[in-house]
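Pasting two entries for a bug report.
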Amino acid sequence: MKKILVTGGTGFLAGWVIRQLLQQGYSVRTTVRSAKKFPKIVKMLDAENVDSSNLSYVVADLTSSNGWAEAMSGITDVLHLASPLGGNDQDNPKLITVAKEGVTHVINAAIGAHVNKIVMTSSEAANYPQKNDHNQQLNESLWTDLNNKDLTNYMRSKTVAENTAWKLIRKQSHTKLVTLLPGAIMGPSMAGKRSSTDQIFEMILKGMPSPNVIYPVVDVRDLADLHIKAMNNQIADNKRLIAESEEMTMPEMARFMKQHFPGFKVRTITIPNWLVASLSHFSSQMKTLNTMIGLKYHRDHSQARKLLNWNPRPAKDTVLDSVNYLIQNKLI
């Protein structure tokens, strides 16, 4: 029986990964930054009727090497999901340092414990071209240029973290690495909790005009499934895999939501690109939105489907489930 370590157990994606692992019969250990956070995970799983008796925890933080050796003891595979998010300060340069130190602590501890494989959540931020790139089929071979003036420091942190992981892995041969590069992780949370992407739907439902942002959508439930598929299949070893369902713009979401949720005053007005670009000089949130506007490229996200028989749901299903979750749990 495999024993799986999931880092960052209180996260949106981690909750679904832990749930699916437990439902499939795995023994799971997770890391939390403080012991008082673990009962919240158990409470959430209990509310979803998920048996948490095979779930344990270790206190470990990305900013310290403490606890990681203990976390890896007896572990066969690691699903490394923990990462600094940045919140509303995605241009904070400290994000780069924390991300690099965190992945170093985790990868070195995993290698030292001779775990079989690490599946690491990276980001399409580490696969971001110049805005004037018209290549219609960008793939996993592209690495983000850290000098790209359109980047936020959060995007740089994801690139540096993934690059650091590959450098550490290549110094040895017994532990394998797979990195998954999701776009915008959306979908329902669990047990009435909020997720980090709820605000996108909330803004639309409250009538905010939509910037012409292009979201490369992946459903959190499908992304959790992809982590487990990558862990269990050697064909994924030592590969980067783009994790995306399909693209959907924010105005497209607004039009879809206006059709399916007529009780809300959804507006389908689009904010001009030039206005978002102008405001990006003064607002961290607008700078983040500006990185997703005016892009001419499309990613080839077929490799994960072909190699691992991964079948993510359509983006519209994710939007529908997300909004229904918000309504049913009285979060909007």
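Entry 2 (this is the one that rendered wrong in the viewer):
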Amino acid sequence: MVVIAIIKPKKNGIVINFEEKSELHNKGFQILESSKKVILTGVVKIDLNYDAGDRYYIIKNKEFEVKITIDKTNKSLPEVIETSKKVDSNYHKFRKGNLCLGSSIELWQGYIASNKSITKYIDQFIIPYFFRYCCIKEYGDFPVGEYSHGDGIREAYEDILGIKEKDKIISILEFYLGNKNMLCPCGSGLKFRECHYSQIHLKLSKVSKQVLKKDMKTLKKLKSKKFYKKFI
């Protein structure tokens, strides 16, 4: 007789299933779990190469110790701190030391699309972060693009929405989160619900409204900063 064990996720948040725990242990990660969070400690190994056409990037045998904190309430993304302190303090880090892996909407979309898989989060965001850093240290640049630190949130929404004007990006978010019966900010004369709503919803539906509201507030604050003038 074959017994199939079904592991159901806990109602109060994220659970790293048996397969992921096994994979993480095989990679040398230690897992500490409490009622509110899961903490992973271990080493991220970089052994990659990339053919950019005009240059071939090779990074071998680089290791970075990390601490990854996962909030079981799903209100925040996994927080990553590089505990080995090999990465320069001015390279894409927040004030408290956690790594800036990308724009919030980019990270949330990838995290949710992978069904909140922490192993995929490591592969998709954490390893590329260290790979880019190693390329900069060894080659002076990196082969793959990244968003600016500070203004990356605007750049991410430009790419996702296909809109360059900062005021229109803010208007789209305001309409998407608010009254959908107002006239669409695109100028078509139609209600937002009848015009761009379905198109925008396809691009933003995987991200919680709390994240979108926070990003909208950040975008509004960026409007007053001097470096923003170059995009006007």
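Dev reply: Rendering is fixed now. As a check, the viewer should reflect this: The mean pLDDT is 82.
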